[in-house]
Specification:
366 residues; alpha/beta; eight-stranded mixed sheet; six-stranded parallel sheet; 13 helices; 39% helix; globular
């Protein structure tokens, strides 16, 4: 079975939730006998990740301009024709914006699967034209995709209500159970100590709410003895990302940059608290990661975070600075907690088997 994957910036070690999803999922599908090619955007290929394959997954680099408004659509269009020339059995499109290509893919005779990672048109970073394009992509995917995968019941309900698409496959994001590290060299380089910092993870975009977190945390008395660490970066420099960096420097928040591997392991292993103040998510892998490290957690009460079914004490009212301040104070006043979460639904091996079933059913019903 030949699968070509588009809609991701690429793998490995490229920032983004969809990218992490693909990096974990597709090597497992290769091990199960699939022939998988992920098409990467050239603007994210660096000397460090320039390679022809990753854990059995073939990598094909196709041009994409690093211009926010043109990058994804240009790349998806060119990648679609690559998949057609390769005579792919399955074209797997990730994200609703890239699903603008779904009808053309079907017209070319491809079996198209869309994974809907969330209603991206709700993100604050997009202007009116981009939001319209994303909504159109969602419509095209809902109407023309041979099969649809959704990563949460919230997204499933969107498709049912808006498009009467009731045959979607619900397959969650996943997380690997980590082996905690004993290393602290990265912590030392950042000037932080074990159990004396809170961590948040994500890209520097408005919907993550990091500016609110910095503002609220800086007012707490704890900020003198406990640090705020933000692991992430901006894919495209924006006024918001520059503002966020300035705020961090002004209020003493520590910017760890985009980190993976042992560095990220160190940050999760030794944090006192994980916070995610997002206004919009699909099903955040960083939240699942924090749960896999048994961290105490405080997240906004958006539907995607509520879907994980944490106890009520782990949520604050989205965008409400007072609610965030009160809950942060309560969490930081107590000793560090080690909490065992139920993560059976988010097992990557299970997810790979579910995805393979979607591929098989799509080809069988062709």
């Amino acid at each position: 079975m030949k699968i070509v994957v588009i809609g991701t910036r690429g793998i490995p070690n490229i920032q983004g939730g969809v990218e992490t999803h693909c990096e974990q999922l597709y090597p497992l599908l290769v091990a199960m006998g699939c022939d998988v090619t992920i098409v990467r955007r050239t603007c994210y290929v660096t000397p460090e990740n320039k390679m022809e394959s990753y854990k059995g997954v073939k990598l094909k680099d196709i041009y994409a301009p690093r211009i926010k408004s043109l990058e994804a659509i240009t790349h998806s269009f060119l990648s679609l024709f690559y998949a057609w020339r390769q005579k792919a059995d399955i074209l797997h499109i990730h994200g609703i914006g890239n699903s603008l290509m779904a009808p053309l893919g079907r017209l070319l005779g491809l079996k198209v699967i869309m994974t809907h990672h969330g209603p991206d048109y709700d993100r604050q970073k997009w202007g009116k034209f981009a939001k319209l394009a994303l909504k159109t992509g969602e419509f095209m995917g809902a109407k023309y995709a041979s099969s649809i995968i959704v990563i949460s019941e919230v997204i499933n309900n969107i498709l049912k209500v808006k498009y009467n698409r009731k045959d979607s496959y619900l397959i969650f994001n996943g997380v690997n159970m980590p082996v905690k590290t004993n290393h602290t060299d990265f912590l030392n380089s950042l000037g932080i100590e074990k159990n004396k910092y809170i961590i948040t993870v994500g890209r520097f975009v408005e919907e993550k709410g990091f500016d609110i977190l910095i503002e609220v945390f800086s007012k707490l008395s704890f900020s003198k003895e406990i640090k705020l660490v933000i692991a992430g970066d901006a894919l495209h420099e924006t006024e918001y990302s520059k503002k966020l960096i300035n705020m961090a420097h002004e209020h003493g928040a520590i910017l760890a940059g985009f980190v993976t591997g042992d560095k990220l392991n160190q940050l999760y292993t030794n944090a006192k608290l994980f916070v995610l103040p997002s206004f919009h998510e699909g099903l955040p892998i960083c939240l699942l990661e924090a749960m896999s490290y048994h961290l105490d957690i405080l997240v906004s009460d958006i539907p995607a975070n509520l879907a994980v079914n944490l106890p009520e004490e782990n949520y604050f009212k989205t965008g409400d600075k007072q609610s965030l301040e009160e809950n942060l104070s309560r969490k930081l006043s107590s000793e560090k907690k080690t909490i065992n979460y139920t993560l059976n639904l988010y097992n990557w091996d299970k997810i790979a088997n579910q995805t393979l079933t979607v591929y098989q059913n799509t080809l069988k019903n062709a």
